[in-house]
């Protein structure tokens, strides 16, 4: 993961953008509270997941 390493350039050249004070930023995706917590089930999740029928 190069996230921290590459962000250093933004700070050096003052091109970084942190909204407001950078606190209370929501992370994740909708439905992440029901996403499996362990590695094996995370890997198997796409095979098990079936979208709801939208009629």
TrEMBL record:
It comes from the Bacteria. This is Sterol desaturase. It comes from Xanthomarina gelatinilytica.
């Amino acid at each position: 993961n190069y996230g921290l390493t590459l962000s250093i350039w933004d700070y050096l050249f003052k091109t970084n953008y942190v909204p407001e004070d950078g606190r209370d930023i929501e992370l994740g995706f909708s439905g992440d509270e029901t996403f499996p917590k362990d590695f094996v089930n995370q890997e198997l999740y796409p095979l098990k997941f079936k979208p709801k029928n939208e009629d």
